[in-house]
Structure formats: C-alpha cells, structure tokens
Amino acid sequence: MAVEPKTYTTVATAVRRYYVWAQIVVVFLLLELAIWAPTAEIRNRWAAISAATILVLVVTDLLMDRSGALRPSWASLHRLGLGLPTVAGAGVVLGMGFAALLFMMIFVRSLGGQIPANPTWFPNLRLIWGYVVWSFIQEFILQSFFFSRFEELYGGPAAVWIAATLFAAAHLPNPILTTATLIGALFFCEAFRRYRGVYPLAIVHAMLGLTIALTVPESLLHHMRVGIGYLRY
User: Fold this and answer.
1) I need a labelling partner for 84 at 20 to 30 A (CA). Which of 3, 24, 119, 200 fits?
2) How far apart are the first and last CA of the chain?
3) Partners of 70 in the beta sheet?
C-alpha cells in the first residue's frame, strides 16, 4: 500500500522538530552543568564538552540544509549570522549600542553613582580583549545556535522572546546580570533577526558589559559571576 508524499512530509517535519528541541535541551543542560559545577576542573570539563557540542551542531547547520541534504551555501552562513554584515545593519546596531552606553553612564551619574564604581578594579587591555572574545562566543551561542533553532520552530518574533529569556536564565542567580541580559538579549535577538550579523552584536555586547562592570558596585555585581560562582563570591 503506497504512502502519500504528504504523510512523509508530516513525519519528517515532526522528526525534525524533535531533533531541534533535543539539541536545545542537551546544549542548555551542558551549559548549566558548566555554570553550576562545584570545582573549576569540572566546570572546565563541562565547558569544553559544551563548546565541542555547539561547534559540531553549528558546523552541521552550515554544511547541510534543513532537509538533511549536504548543501553548504552562502545562505546557510547568512542565516547563522556568520557572513559579513551589511554596512547599514552594522551601523544601526553599533549606533544603538553606543547610545545605550551613554544612557547608562548618564543614568548612573544622575543617581549620584560613582564612575568607576569600583576604583580598585579597572580592566587592562588584555582583560578588555578577552572580554570582547567572550562576548563573541556568547553571541555566537545565543544567535547562531539558540535563536536560529527557536526561529525554525516558532518564527522570528517568538524566537526573540524565547531565546532572550533562556539567555537571561543562564545568568541566574545574579540579579543585575539576569535583568540586564534579558533587556540586552531582547535587543540583540531583534537586531539579529533584522540584520543577521553576529560581529556587530559582539562589539556592542562587549561595550555594554564593560560599562556595567564600570558602573555597578562589586557588592551587587560579584565580579560579573553567575551560577555557583556568584553564590561563592
């Protein structure tokens, strides 16, 4: 008895959705294990496993289309935000990021806050470059992995909220970073949905992260730590 092509399509779609959700759940759990592991050695081990898993899955996305066919293309690179950004898109993202930086500085000063809030700590060039690299890694995970999958499952507008909420949850229990990353990730994900570029977002992410480090007292920020590191600060 022949099976209609429509049935094959329905089954393939359902299998694909389960597969995408499995990727999301596994990677998020691996990241949480890295964040909450009790020792640095175990954290590093889970972080390495998380990084390898994400890299393999994203490379697979680049090499295959969503039907499973081996078909690397510029469209795949663009969809994951890893191609060259447009000048207009980069300009909008960087401009809004700089405006947010100025707003944060003016807001803190208007409340009588001190800048830098932690005079005994000021990032040197090595730390700044390290944070820029870390910002790119975070945006790569947020956009090229999580957002692109939620977008496939639920569409772009819903993916903005879901991915941003998940990103903020990864910064628990730090109240400052959880709040800031929810607001920031809503902007990052919406900008990614519109302009599809990870690199400008990484620059803005680094700018705003360093601004938070300079304007929020260590007694509240706990040196920007999350997970078990925040509780043990």
Assistant:
1) 24
2) 66
3) 64
d(CA 122, CA 84): 33
Which amino acid, one-letter code, is at 76? S
Distance separating alpha carbons of residues 224 and 40, to the nearest angstrom? 16
**Which residues are within 8 A (CB) of 90 and not within 5 positions of it... i.e. 6 or more apart?**
195, 197, 199, 200
In the 8-state DSSP scheme, what is residue 106? H
156 is written with which tokens?
């772009």
Q: Are 34 and 24 in contact (CB under 8 A)?
A: no
State yes or no: pLDDT of 70 exceeds 70: no
205, 188 Cβ separation under 8 angstroms = yes
How confident is the model over 1-17, as pLDDT tens digits? 444 556 767 888 899 89
E strands in the chain = none
Give 133-178 as a DSSP string: HHHHHHHIIIIIIIIHHHHHHH-HHHHHHHHHHHHHHTTTT-HHHH
pLDDT (tens digit per residue) in 135-165: 999 999 999 999 999 999 999 999 999 999 9
CA dist., res. 172 & res. 170, Å (int): 6
Q: What are the structure tokens assigned to 149, written together?
A: 């999958």
Does residue 204 surpass a pLDDT of 90?
Answer: yes
Q: What does the pLDDT read at residue 164? A: 98
What's the whole-number mean pLDDT along residues 19-46?
97
The SS3 assignment for 64 reads strand
Q: Are 53 and 30 in contact (CB under 8 A)?
A: yes
What token pair was written down for 185?
């990730």
What is the pTM for the complete model shown?
0.91
